[in-house]
Design goal:
The chain is α+β, with helices and mostly antiparallel strands. It has 2 domains: about 5-225, Rossmann fold; about 235-360, RNA polymerase II/Efflux pump adaptor protein, barrel-sandwich hybrid domain (OB fold (Dihydrolipoamide Acetyltransferase, E2P)), CATH 2.40.50.100. The chain is about 25% helix and about 35% strand. It contains 8 helices and 20 strands. The strands form 4 sheets. It has a 6-stranded mixed sheet, sandwiched between helices. Strands 13-12-11-14-20 form a 5-stranded antiparallel sheet. The longest helix has 17 residues, at about 165-180. It starts with a strand and ends in a 5-residue tail after the last strand. The structure holds adenosine-5'-diphosphate and magnesium ion. Adenosine-5'-diphosphate (ADP) binds near residues 36, 39, 42 and 44. InterPro entries: AAA+_ATPase, ABC_SmlMolc_Importer, ABC_transporter-like_ATP-bd, ABC_transporter-like_CS, P-loop_NTPase. One of its GO terms (molecular function) is ATP binding.
Amino acid sequence: MAKLVVDKLTKTFGDFYAAKEISFTANEGEFVTLLGPSGCGKTTLLKMIGGFHQPDSGRIKIGEKEVTHLTPEKRNTAMCFQSYALFPHLNVSHNICFGLKQRKIALSEQKKRLEKVIQQVGLKGQELKMPSQLSGGQQQRVALARAMITQPDVILFDEPLSNLDAKLRESVRYEIKELQKQYNLTSIYVTHDQSEALAMSDKIIVLNAGSIEQMGKPEDIYFRPTSRFVADFIGAANIVKAKVKKANSANYYHVACELGNFYVYSDISPRAEEVYVCWRPENLHYIEDGPVANISGMPENFCYIDIEKLAFMGSTTEGFGRCGEGLSSFRVQFQLKPNLSQSNKACFRLTENAIHFLEPVRQGS
Ligand SMILES: Nc1ncnc2c1ncn2[C@@H]1O[C@H](COP(=O)(O)OP(=O)(O)O)[C@@H](O)[C@H]1O
Ligand SMILES: [Mg+2]
């Protein structure tokens, strides 16, 4: 396994930028996810790393070697696709060994590696079955084994779980992650599924229209989004415009927005006086007997939301509502189904570190 360095990779189709100056590093054994909506350039980027697309500009290094212009066979990567791309007329063993045979690896070596990898992915006893006799999850394991057996420096995954049903997707997700950790596989993993990205990755790169929107650990991406795009794409978020003023204590701010006035802690400074802010529904805490507004208004960090809709989600109940005459609809979360029969007004307290500063509000927007 080796480190991968992607440096200012750009790819255009006509005058359309599918990837624009993309730079990142995947360290040896690191699991890096390219996350973004359909069409944002994930597959294009992966194909450039694998050598199936030539970039217009930029460089790719694997280990100490520059591979930017090498053919796929000459760079030691392996690709694991969504459609598995198993050969229907070859049994499990032959499918797994296909790449080795092409590379004319000695039969004895093939056998040795096959035995090991079959054990690793848990396919013992299935060696002679044809792909059509396997479940979706097993087929995915064959595809993974076929990638691992070539002992690649980097494994590239393109939405490998999207053909599996929800339950299986979760269990295979943990299997892949387990193998990746155990064998220290440098992995570049493409998905549009944010929960998959959060659960599996060491590093997430959020892509938007061919550019990197934000890069960081899953916790950073989830808890410290820096743009509306990321806040909205990862999990549920409430996003509004706000006016921000520095408070007297370091890293504290007064934030005024449609929801009310808040005293906020943030170690990231706002980029302007008027910015978009966001918070997760779970950071607004329902206070059953909330404070009554005094003459000068609500105390800071408390607010009332008129709940218009409740949805029971099992472990929590979700609510949607507005603040007074406000235009925005806010999403809130209750640990237990609230008793709101008297009035739909629910009081909430926002924790002081729940508000994140996003991009500045542009004049006229
Ligand atoms: N061979 C191609 N020719 C022209 N446009 C392409 C080609 N491949 C991809 N694109 C375009 O580039 C954009 C990114 O595609 P892709 O990398 O497949 O996105 P993703 O994998 O994130 O869904 C899309 O708008 C797609 O239509
Ligand atoms: Mg794709």
